[in-house]
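Fold it.
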Amino acid sequence: MFGSILENIWGSKRFLNFYLLCGLGAAALQLAISSFNNEFTILLGASGAVFGLLVAFAIMFPNTELQLYFIIPVKAKYLVTFYALYELYNGFFSMDNVAHFAHLGGLIVGLIIMMIWRKNKNFFY
């Protein structure tokens, strides 16, 4: 949903680099947090990289209305902000088998990359 729009703007090479960096950032944060708890688990999935795409979309198109549960219209900037807070809360208090800090790691790396691109006037190309 968000990836195709970003890939059309950035091009395939830049999109792939962004996606992979967000995925690596997601894995790094999750492994760092789990090492403090001495809980080493297998990481599987690409959700951390997808969170990087979410933050990139929200930065580039902040006022785009998305449909939450196909009913509730929410602007992209608010949806990503609340989703990040939800993941942060669940990272500390949830006892499920979801790598919540991996989601936050992808989001943080995506945010950092977008800030660098914006600062260098290299936002779209």
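The CA atoms of residues 55 and 80 lie 6 Å apart.
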